[in-house]
Amino acid sequence: MPTPAQPRVSARTQPTGSSATASLGGGLTTPLGTPGQPVVYSSKPITVRSTSVRVMRALVRALFYLLLIGGSVMYAIPFIYMVRWSFMTTSQVYDPDLFWPFPPAWENYTYVWQHHPVPWWLFNSFIVTFIGVTVGTFVSCVVAYGFARLDFPGSRVIFMVLLSTMMLPLHVTIIPVVIIFRDLGWLDTLWPLIVPGLGGGAFYIFILRQFFMTIPIELDEAARTDGASRLGILFRVILPLSKPAIATVAALSFIGNWNDFFLPLIVLNSPDRITLPVGLRYFAAGQYMEQQHTLQMAVAMISVMPIIVVFFFAQRQFVRGITLTGIKG
Asked: For the purposes of burial, counting CB atoms within 10 Å of the CB of 296, is it exposed (0-12), middle (13-18) or buried (19 or more)?
């Protein structure tokens, strides 16, 4: 008796140097062999993803983007109002029909710059932040390298004690800290803001140590074979490979030093020695009553612009450093 018809399968040799494809209809082709090998054509249908699955994934993606846009708008509204008020006059602030001033009141910025010690506040913040970022980041790198590469007795215990200091807030120790600064004669100077940051930070050391441990130890051994010292390995091997982590620590240190408010508020008294965040308090507390809201927003814009610029240029390294840190315990 006749046998059922079987799917037709044909084979032919594909010339060397070309790829085999078969037409599937609708302009689709599929490779069926490698150069120099027999090419097999099969009538087996190719599974096509369901349309409902594609629609569902598109809806999920659209919902995800809508949530991101909504969150961004929610966080951007206070910043937009700050920019808006900084370019308004006093009468325009209370005008409900005016959304954006035109022309903008640039005199708010020139007024606070010329009639208030904003340049001194900016200079003091810059000095504290620059020293804290440069020296503090360097010391954190050295200490983190010691914890990551040197297996000395008690290293794990010391590292745990270092991490435990992050659970102790400054508000708990502020009284003995101020007494120490008073005995040293550092009150109403920038030394209390500079000296504590010279030893690095526990959180920064932790980030760098975790990143250093992801670097293969074989690179250290190869450099030691070539005669490199411990510091030579740090500067020639470890640090060049750790730019994302260093950029992350530098950005976090910049934000922390620039926005520091509590300690400068306690130890600084003279108007020409305070930092910019403390200077904002004078406007918020009513020290300068004329055009209080508009001038306060102008000073706030001057304060926030350096942070925006730093994060704009360091965002790629910042995100990469956060992503890569902690891969290896």
From this structure: buried
- Give the DSSP per-residue string, 198-227: GG--HHHHHHHHHHHTTS-HHHHHHHHHTT
- Which three-class secondary structure state does DSSP give residue 33? strand
In order of 76, 111, 128, 160, the CA distances from 69 in angstroms are: 10, 36, 36, 40
Alpha-carbon distance of 45 to 98, in angstroms, equals 65
How many whole angstroms separate alpha carbon 197 and alpha carbon 256?
Answer: 11
pTM above 0.85, yes or no: no
In tens digits, the chain (329 residues) has pLDDT values of: 445 554 444 444 444 444 444 444 444 444 545 555 554 545 555 445 578 888 888 899 999 999 999 988 898 888 888 898 888 887 787 777 787 888 888 888 988 888 888 899 999 999 999 999 999 999 999 999 999 988 888 888 999 999 888 888 888 889 999 999 999 999 999 999 999 888 888 999 999 998 899 889 999 889 888 888 888 999 999 999 888 889 889 988 999 999 999 999 999 988 888 999 998 887 766 555 455 778 888 888 999 998 888 888 777 766 665 565 544 44
C-alpha of 294 from chain center? 30
**188-191-194-195 Cα dihedral, nearest 10 degrees:** -140
Q: E strands, 73-158, where?
A: none
